[in-house]
Inverse folding.
């Protein structure tokens, strides 16, 4: 008789919906479809299609530390076998859940960085606490490659992100490309969208009006709109709020090039989605595995840049060339996206959980 394993996926705090939440939701659905009883545990369960359980939101780290003792005790008493700690924000709680006899799997989306290396990074105390906490994990999976090097004394398995098959196979929008650039992101400081607006300003100085669509919502919306006015980009930039996921393939089809301007990324879901629709990309040098993906895997499928590059005429020329040759990258981009299928990425997680 096979014993069904029970796994909880813990998301602390009250994070905004994004690629990491989509990843977790699909992981939960995948585990349940393959004989593992999985449930998402979070203070905010809205948006999840998987079985989920709402818990009290605990904003303070000190209170969250003590609250995790209660959660660990409760989960174990209810018969949970394992817990998946989602990203760096919960990794530091690994010793507590391990103390109560739960198998601990850490799933890291972002890569660990010191604040002096990246403004979105951790201070020295947090940095070393996270590295120490990793020793209490039974398994660590990372969406990006950076953590394999950073947690060198604890084995970390790189699994990457994935794009679902339906995204690749959705009917192609054959209409003319309406936008030169597309940026899909939460409008937050981490996404560093002002950098992209500066790039648009520099490109448009050549009297060629490039157009861009920015899709998303967030706390930076008002400031971004002010920058658009300040840079004289009112006719070049279009803002649009979040749309249904089923509409995204057609949205990607309306652009020539995808943009990631982030200060910090793991392996962005949106980059894979853009490639799945045949779009090359320009990504910042601080965007984690996005850099490796664009530069490798059978060929270059875009450009990598940092702020100083946007004032370089040679770089601007290469961006313009990428736009003019965008359709030539389509087959390469799609082939690269297919490397990271749902089965190839989520399958190893399922196998490891079953083996624990």
């Amino acid at each position: 008789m096979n014993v069904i394993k029970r796994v909880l996926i813990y998301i602390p705090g009250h994070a905004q919906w994004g690629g990491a939440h989509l990843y977790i939701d699909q992981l939960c659905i995948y585990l349940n479809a393959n004989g593992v009883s999985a449930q998402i545990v979070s203070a905010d369960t809205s948006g999840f299609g998987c079985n989920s359980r709402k818990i009290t939101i605990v904003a303070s780290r000190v209170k969250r530390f003590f609250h995790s003792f209660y959660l660990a005790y409760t989960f174990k008493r209810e018969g949970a076998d394992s817990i998946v700690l989602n990203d760096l924000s919960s990794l530091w709680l690994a010793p507590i859940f391990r103390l109560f006899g739960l198998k601990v799997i850490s799933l890291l989306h972002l890569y660990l960085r010191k604040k002096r290396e990246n403004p979105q990074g951790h201070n020295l105390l947090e940095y070393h606490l996270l590295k120490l906490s990793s020793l209490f994990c039974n398994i660590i999976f990372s969406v990006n490659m950076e953590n394999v090097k950073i947690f060198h004394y604890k084995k970390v398995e790189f699994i990457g992100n994935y794009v679902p098959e339906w995204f690749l196979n959705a009917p192609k929008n054959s209409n003319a490309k309406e936008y030169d650039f597309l940026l899909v992101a939460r409008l937050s400081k981490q996404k560093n969208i002002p950098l992209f607006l500066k790039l648009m300003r520099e490109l448009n100085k050549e009297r060629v009006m490039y157009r861009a669509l920015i899709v998303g919502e967030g706390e930076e919306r008002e400031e971004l709109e002010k920058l658009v006015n300040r840079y004289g980009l009112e006719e070049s930039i279009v803002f649009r709020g979040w749309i249904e996921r089923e509409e995204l393939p057609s949205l990607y089809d309306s652009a020539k090039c995808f943009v990631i301007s982030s200060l910090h990324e793991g392996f962005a879901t949106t980059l894979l989605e853009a490639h799945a629709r045949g779009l090359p990309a320009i990504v910042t040098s601080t965007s984690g595995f996005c850099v490796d993906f664009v530069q490798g895997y059978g060929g270059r499928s875009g450009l990598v840049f940092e702020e100083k590059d946007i004032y370089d005429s040679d770089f601007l020329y290469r961006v313009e060339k990428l736009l003019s040759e965008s359709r030539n990258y389509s087959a390469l981009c799609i082939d690269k996206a297919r490397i990271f299928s749902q089965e190839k990425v989520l399958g190893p997680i399922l196998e490891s959980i079953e083996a624990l």
The first strand starts at residue 6 and ends at 11. Residues 6-162+341-355 form a domain with the Rossmann fold fold (CATH 3.40.50.2000).
